[in-house]
Amino acid sequence: MTGMGKLFVISAPSGAGKTTLVGRVLSRFKSLSYSVSHTTRNSRKNEQDGVDYFFISLAEFEQKISLDLWLEWAKVHGNYYGTSKKFVRNCLGKGRSLLLDIDIQGARQIMDSDLDLISIFILPPSFEVLSQRLENRGTDSREVIARRLKNAKLEMTQKDLYQYVVVNDDLDEAVKELCSIFEKETAQV
Description:
Blueprint: E1 7-11, H1 18-28, E2 32-35, E3 38-39, E4 54-55, H2 58-66, E5 70-76, E6 79-84, H3 85-93, E7 97-101, H4 104-111, E8 117-123, H5 127-137, H6 142-156, E9 164-167, H7 171-187
Parallel strand pairs: 1-7, 1-8, 2-7, 3-4, 8-9
Antiparallel strand pairs: 3-6, 5-6
């Protein structure tokens, strides 16, 4: 009989390098599944529906809220983001470990649920570096960057809610640290 899979929740302020780190971890841990979130925001250049996010309408998202189909959901930067309750429970029930890349609001909802999880917060080396990363990304307007930086200050104060904190200063070192967390946690029975 297969046991329950492990649930990993990773959060970070926008621009901390979470997506890059998650991609590197997933490439090294083939037994780890990734939960693709749903969002009402528009896709960015090079993003694919069903790979990066499931891009859905505001009406569809809100209907799923009313039907209690989200494990967690939040409105972030003016858009909804959510994780399918059915997908997560099915994956864990089949003994597959699952990685969720979600914001702090969603992570807190899962922390308050009946699910056992391993929580990891990714920090930038400094607020100045975070600001520069968002500027260099070239995907957002000045107003959006300002909103993301304002939110990042608040999000960074929440890091102590997480079991692990990884500072993404040197990418290779951060990947190594994150992989060691996954190795340790998946080795435990």
